[in-house]
Amino acid sequence: MHSHYYGAGLPEIMRKRHGIPKLVREPDGGETMWAMTAKFPFGDRYVELAPRQDFLKNCGLEAQLLTFPGALGLDVQPAGEVAGAISAYNDGLAEICANHPGQFYGLGGLPLADIAMAAAELRRLRRDLGLLGALLPGNMFRDLKSLETLRPLFEAGEELGAHFLVHPGLAPGEDPPPSFEDNNAYRASTIQLQAGISQTVLTLILSDTLDRFPNVSFQVINLGGTMPVSVERMVQTAAHRTPDRPFPEHRLRRLYYDTASMGPRAVEVAVRTFGADRIVLGTDFPIFRSDPVAMIESADIDEDEHRQIAGGTARTIIDRLC
Questions:
Q1: Residue 37's pLDDT band (boundaries 50, 70, 90)?
Q2: Residue pLDDT, tens place only, 178-237
Q3: What are phi and psi of 203, to 5 degrees?
Q4: Model confidence at 38, in pLDDT bands (50, 70, 90)?
């Protein structure tokens, strides 16, 4: 329930771009994808279906949710510049899902610099293309004011039902953060990223969004960041500082959380914090290619919890929208 697809005409678009994000041909003939916050070698597994299908088979997975690669930052560029490209991508993604029923499901991209245009595209995703919803950048969830700008999207999702994957990414018009002077891969891609994911969780559960839009579901990546080990401190903080307003930890179960790039110890804590019925498998393929089934099999959880994470929770989400 957490993988990204870079095909459907996206590489051709990225090769034509001069500003970041862009796809650059290197002197050795290879290509490098320059995303808004990182760059990485680009290859067939990002575009072709065969390597993806081999990965699924080798891990014993039956199906995969393909999502627009929001971390690139293309969806937060000026809407007039990227809306056509994003719509074309969504068309291609929908065609793949239609041609592989039961194996691939999809979440599209949206031109988020124009929320009205994004809401119209979300309606098209659900009404015409059969995709489950869309990917949204986490920096649009970092506080209640930012969340309010997305309300037209949630209203559109409420009309037709929609699932949103909230993934780390910049908001429209936002500059990339500076790199750390040392150990950036760990400081930025782990510690800072996990804290940012927790901000998404906190914003959603302390807003009225979950109550106002019950036909919309939200999935937060990486088991909610640091939230599973921070919630007890939040409960204690409220008990001592605002005893008349206890921390609403029960609302954590209003979200879904995926296991992408996490391990068995983190899964164990998350199961006890959220419940297995709120947790889905994730890989972040093709960036990460670890076996998620083997990972949860090594977690100290019972067989029913294992089955729920392996597919039961995901089936609940998909069946509601298909």
A1: confident
A2: 999 999 989 999 999 999 999 999 999 999 999 999 999 999 999 999 999 999 999 999
A3: -60, -45
A4: confident
Beta bridge partners of 65: 105
Closest of 224, 187, 229, 174 to residue 203, by C-alpha: 224
* Dist. CA 67–CA 59, nearest whole Å: 19
Please give the structure tokens belonging to residue 210: 């979950």
* Residue 13: CB atoms within 10 Å: 19
For 198, residues 6+ apart whose C-beta sits below 8 A from its C-beta are 224, 225, 226, 227, 230
Cα 35 from chain centre = 16
What is the pLDDT averaged over residues 164-186? 94
Q: Report the alpha-carbon distance of residue 115 to residue 232 in Å, rounded.
A: 36
219 by DSSP, 3-state: which? strand
Q: Which region holds residue 38: left if phi is over 0, alpha if psi is between -120 and 50, else beta?
A: beta
Residue 6: its pLDDT value, please? 96
Token pair 């009225």: residue: 208
Nearest to 138 by CA among 147, 129, 130: 147
The amino acid that residue 320 corresponds to is: R
Token couple for 275: 């419940």
| Residue 126, phi then psi, degrees to nearest 5 | -80, -45
- 4 forms bridges with which residues in the sheet? 67
Integer CA distances (angstroms), 322 to 98, 161, 191, 235, 316, in order = 12, 10, 36, 38, 10
Which residues, including other chains, have CB under 8 Å from residue 5's CB and lie 6 or more apart?
46, 52, 66, 67, 68, 69, 93, 96, 106
Q: Is the pTM of this model over 0.90?
A: yes
Q: Which residues pair with 67 in a beta bridge?
A: 4, 107
